[in-house]
Amino acid sequence: DRARTRAGEQADALFAAAAEKFAAALAVKPDNHNALFNLACLHGLRGDVAGCIAALERRLKVRPTLTQANLDADHDFDAVRSDPRFTAFRERLAP
Length: 95
Hints:
mainly alpha
């Protein structure tokens, strides 16, 4: 959340720190669906479509309850929402 209020190098450093924390959490518990979803959100905020979808795919394997509505309600995906890869992933989910 703090990274959203910063710009440039400060934001980059905070996003990198968050990514490290998610990686550490997933190293301990690879099936942590919350960490996977939040990692996808982090990638979404950074405009990293491939990273976002990869985390969402992992999340979907761990807990297949992910829906289009989950993605639609989360503004963290706004930067990647119009990408055809994200759209194709979203369309595979239940409404």
